[in-house]
Amino acid sequence: MPAISTVPAAGSASARRRRIAFLAYAALVVAALASGSAALGAAVALILVSMLLLPALRRGAAWAWATWPLAVAAIGALALSGRGALALGAMPALIAAALCALFASTLARGRRPLIARVIEVTEGAERLALPGVARYARNLTAAWALLFGAQAFVSATLLVCMTPGGAAERFGVRPPFAVPAAFARIWLDCGGLAVVAAFLLAEYAFRRRRLAHIPHPSLARFLAGLTRSWPDLVRGLAGAPHGEAR
How confident is the model at residue 238 (pLDDT cuts 50, 70, 90)? Predict the structure, then answer.
């Protein structure tokens, strides 16, 4: 009996630690944005890059172990030159690029597409075995990779060409074209999230028509299931070997 009772307690303690860590990081982001501190901006970016690369680092992926020290060196150079705020401003592009790489990497030969994993974790392997579902999951994984890749490119372009305050301007280089800072900030702060939300809703509506021969859970039910199953999905990504394709 004592051994059984300790399981939920350990899980609860782990959940509390994750919430505390998330709140602490959110507070650091707010402090960096409010103060404009180059050091805080660099710290926020370094933590973010480390968290994004952590699953691949745990898998021992060579590209991740090559990328992480380069990212540390680049962020450190920005901080030492007083341009650490640029690292903070690059967060939307970094997140989009990391998500693009995540979705695209699961399309490699011998790996299971990320959307297929989501379906299996949230709805079961039986759902994935239904006619047309596995192929749709692979195509949708590719679509998400393209979307996040485009977002990374747009966000990076806006960060470089924003006037005033863009990366090119701060390095004393004339950008190839100027983007008003007000527009760039709106996109960097909200535009990417709005596009993701719109794509999610449009894909759900398209899926119901494209796979009309099978039943579909409501969008709210699907999102609730994804939220509940997220820890299992993340653990699977962190430790997934390359021989998982079905």
Answer: low
Alpha-carbon distance of 40 to 50, in angstroms, equals: 15
CB 30 within 8 A of CB 86: no
Q: CA 148 to CA 195: how far, in whole Å?
A: 10
Alpha helices in the chain (DSSP H): 2-35, 38-59, 62-80, 84-89, 91-105, 114-123, 125-128, 133-161, 167-170, 181-186, 192-210, 219-239
Confidence at residue 143, expressed as pLDDT on a 0 to 100 scale: 96
| Residue (of 89, 63, 62, 71) closest to 170 by Cα position | 89
